[in-house]
């Protein structure tokens, strides 16, 4: 699964480099879809139950397709069950923290905090993996961060001054840092293990870890409602974000590394705005075009030679 990390020189000159950019862009679109759906049902479906069922359904969907691969990769899975369990725990706990945080904070606050994720990924990669960024790449990280914050604030500095943070923001911050740790630890998965088999094991181990918390939430708070709206949302999240989005993200992250892959997270608010325009009939504003250009410019600086 780890594959061969592409060098800066080959990123835009090979099919593998272009493929990495494509799958990471698709992953960001899938994650933006999850943000939109998650915000729409967070008051109806409890957060831990939402995370548990979307990930469990993802494993069920994957199983028929990757069962032969699981049999072939069984020795590798047994040898690397520790890293797989670690990744599963980090991934699902981080997703759950984000869903819980949305119950206590605003979408604006959540977007601002999520904008920190590419920066935290770069910093953690420098500390843990000893990755180094050139000056142009550092400028790209800063430019992408500015673009995201400007889009959230609609290029109005006063809007940022008015933002008030709360306990839910801390949970979202922890979830964002968790996603950064997940991206960095993906390198622990051997390249002999297929991406789909690795994803299946990550999901299964993560579901086992979060299961006790789901039971507690069901008993002390409320169960996941059995309604058409809730079921449709969970199925959509599972197929689009959990299976497709995470599989694309894992592949792209392994090809170009966590520092550069993390920059594609900045595309989430861009895709969220596009979805709002297409599906909700919202208008396209000039500030959205300008901020999207800043974000794409930042990504280019990080990825270029």
Explain what the structure shows:
It is a single chain. The protein is mainly alpha-helical. The longest helix is centred in the C-terminal third of the chain and has 29 residues, at 228-256. The two termini are 25 Å apart. It has helices at 15-41, 47-72, 74-79, 81-102, 107-114, 117-129, 135-152, 157-161, 167-185, 195-220, 228-256, 258-261, 268-280, 286-303. It has one domain. The mean pLDDT is 85. The chain is globular, with a radius of gyration of 19 Å.
| SSE succession | HHHHHHHHHHHHHH
Average pLDDT reading: 85
Q: Helix/strand/pairing class, anyone?
A: mainly alpha
Number of helical runs?
14
Q: Report the sheet with the most strands, covering strand number, pairing sense and barrel closure.
A: none
Compact overview of the structure:
This protein is mostly helical. The protein has helices at residues 15-41, 47-72, 74-79, 81-102, 107-114, 117-129, 135-152, 157-161, 167-185, 195-220, 228-256, 258-261, 268-280, 286-303.
Q: How is the topology of this model organized?
A:
Elements: H1 15-41, H2 47-72, H3 74-79, H4 81-102, H5 107-114, H6 117-129, H7 135-152, H8 157-161, H9 167-185, H10 195-220, H11 228-256, H12 258-261, H13 268-280, H14 286-303
Helix pairs in contact: 1-11, 1-13, 2-4, 2-10, 2-11, 4-9, 4-10, 5-9, 6-9, 7-14
